[in-house]
Amino acid sequence: MSEVLMELTKDHLETGLRGVPVGYCTTSKVDPMKGLFYVEQPVMDLAQRDPEDVIYLLLNKRFPTAEESVVFRKDLASRAKVTTRVLGTLGSLPRRGHPMKWFLHSLNTMGMMASTGDYLEDTLTLIARIPTVVAAIFRIREDWGEPIDPDPELGYMENFVHMLGVPEQNEKQQAALTQLMRVFNVVHFDHGGGNLSTFVGKATASGKADLFESITAAMCGLAGPLHGKANQECLKFVQECIHAVGGEVNEETVKSLIRQRLANKQLVYGFGHAVLRVEDPRATTLCDLGEKLCADDINFHMVQTLRKVVPEILSENPKISNPYPNVDLASGALLHASGLTDPDYYTVLFGMSRVVGIAIQIIYERHQARNGRGTPIIRPKYLYNEKGSAK
Ligand code: AMX
Predict the structure, then answer these.
(1) Whole-prediction pTM value?
(2) Class of domain 28-225+344-368 as given by CATH
């Protein structure tokens, strides 16, 4: 007799599969009280590691030896160049199209040129090329100049910042952006198996769509404001708050602003989580980094003030399961202070990181699940009822 995981009732219908177990995730898990773990390692402990070694960990379920690490970096570096044929198509895209739409276009176009149909091979290529293509999106869409080639001597995120070539950025600012991108990249790699974009990616791959098609579908899922776009909304919210208090950022002005927002039935962005019941350790990590990188920045000051006053106010509402900061509270303020000032790009930066975890989860489902047979094509059941759920 197989173990019963949960009893399903009609109350589970039309709830977005919340809490319904559908498979195994071999890369990461979210503990409501301890936060995110990659292969049993708390993500906070990984935030200062080289992103390449954390990618290796997610792929191989152990850290590389020094020698393996060198070989892995060389492999990624050798795959990083994106053909001018692919980058050339970016120049014809509408400037006003959201950067996330440019990103979707790039993934699809890259797939036309690079797909081999082998999920592992394509995962390595995709991970290697994502920073190149994202940097090119910034440069072309913002008129910063021609795309910059990857430098095989540089690390994964060092290379990304080099290829971005943010205009008028001095060495100190470039070093700060690199430090931020290394941490931002690692903490966004993966987030369990059932979040929307990851699930969509795996569902698409279950029909044997290739890796690039599956990741493109996943990133369409990430583009929504309730999912990946929340980080862009969060910085806008922080800036709106500064504006609303007339630049007088202190605990009293912010408390009264938040009470007013809640009375108007408006969301307090950057707080709450579907699974976590404590401050997201990724938010803690990013706020600690913000203290080092941009303690005097006005957006960051607002973030830290919100972090101090909001949990107590949200706790007064018993409906709110988690009154604490989530990962999106601080990330936008830090990116802004480090020279990436347009929040429209933040979901793309999130996507650039998240493709790592999704692609690796796809490899598991296609090649390792069910003793190597892979999961079958996704096919949940819908009950026919012409009135839907209406009584
Ligand atoms: N501000 C105001 N109201 C909030 C709230 C917040 N930060 N967090 C929760 N609530 C409200 C919900 O809207 C919901 O109200 P309803 O019953 O009238 O619809 C009620 O409290 C219960 O919600 P919940 O069970 O605590 O959370 P959830 O799992 O339904 O939603 C989340 C989680 C993140 C969508 C929600 O907390 C939210 O909207 N937060 C603000 C937006 C935000 O920061 N989004 C980034 C999410 C981070 C991430 O996961 N990427």
Answers:
(1) 0.95
(2) mainly alpha
